[in-house]
Specification:
Structural class: alpha/beta
Bound molecules: S-adenosylmethionine
Radius of gyration: 17 Å
CATH superfamily: Vaccinia Virus protein VP39
Distance between the termini: 34 Å
Number of helices: 11
Order of helices and strands: HHEHEHEEHEHHHEHHHE
Shape: globular
Number of strands: 7
Largest sheet: 7 strands, mixed
Number of domains: 1
Length: 256
């Protein structure tokens, strides 16, 4: 199968998968573990944005889904564009976005951004690159590079292949079969993403880890009761070299 066909088939399957779960997607954030993961992910992702003022600057959220991250960007003063291949996912976002101004939603494949060169201050993309066919990932990073303004910032949130879940899902295939479309996702190691970003031309690359807990099947009531304690420990260890690589979640920052 040639690369174009491989990418097309992969994208169709991913889109269908997310459309099927769009209605339930946000339930994740209402379970104790999902809420913990969300808090930790937001802390590391937005730690890359802390120092500057972004009032009225334009941010693009690629794979915006139900708008979870788009809303966070709006709260920080950005004018935002949310882009996703699935209209169903963005329909959920639309309802939540009613109370905000300064946002646009665009249905498009991330491989062909309908956006002018050098026009975006910040591109954010969380748990989306994993669902892009590996043959297509470089093209998407090139597109992001093209639309970013000079010195613009790219922030990625990725499921980490060397992290606890990456390891668990490798050894426990039956679980992988249960949570479609996540069965299609191909997790990243820090080495893989840093290599791809460098190849595309990005500079000043940094990464941090987040979420240190086994997959849901291994979580006991005991563990859930202690999530706040885990959080405190996590804040202390997540930037240490070893722990950066073994979180469930990998937050990456790069500049154009
Ligand atoms: C796991 S969800 C992440 C949604 C959101 N970023 C979040 O963290 O809650 C992945 C999203 O990527 C979108 N997606 C997958 N492939 C895409 C592509 N080729 N172009 C644009 N969006 C895509 C899916 O439709 C889905 O909404």
């Amino acid at each position: 199968m040639d690369k174009r066909q491989e990418n097309k088939e992969f994208t169709v399957e991913v889109k269908k998968g997310f459309e099927e779960i769009s209605e339930y997607y946000d339930l994740w954030f209402s379970i104790p573990f999902g809420a913990y993961a969300d808090r930790m992910e937001k802390e590391v992702i937005f730690s890359f944005l802390e120092k500057k003022k972004y009032k009225r600057m334009i941010a693009l959220d690629i794979g915006t889904g139900t708008g979870v991250w788009l809303i966070e960007l709006l709260k920080r003063g950005f004018t935002t564009i949310g882009l996703d291949i699935s209209l169903e996912m963005m329909n959920v976002a639309k309802v939540k976005l009613k109370e905000f101004d300064s946002w646009f939603l665009v249905q498009s494949d991330a491989g062909n951004l309908p956006i002018s060169n050098d026009s975006i201050s910040v591109v954010l993309s969380v748990t989306t690159l994993e669902f892009i066919a590996p043959v297509h990932r470089e093209k998407i990073l090139k597109e992001i590079y093209r639309v970013l303004a000079k010195d613009g910032l790219l922030i990625l949130g990725l499921l980490c292949s060397t992290g606890i879940w990456g390891f668990e899902t490798k050894i426990r295939r039956p679980l992988r079969q249960l949570i479609f479309p996540y069965t299609l996702g191909k997790f990243f190691s820090s080495k893989e993403i840093v290599t791809l970003l460098r190849k595309t031309g990005f500079k000043n690359i940094e990464f941090k880890g987040a979420v240190y807990s086994p997959t849901l099947r291994f979580q006991s009531r005991f563990l859930i009761a202690y999530l706040r304690v885990i959080e405190k420990i996590e804040r202390k260890i997540r930037e240490l070299p070893f722990f950066k690589e073994i979180g469930v979640f990998l937050a990456v920052k790069a500049e154009k």
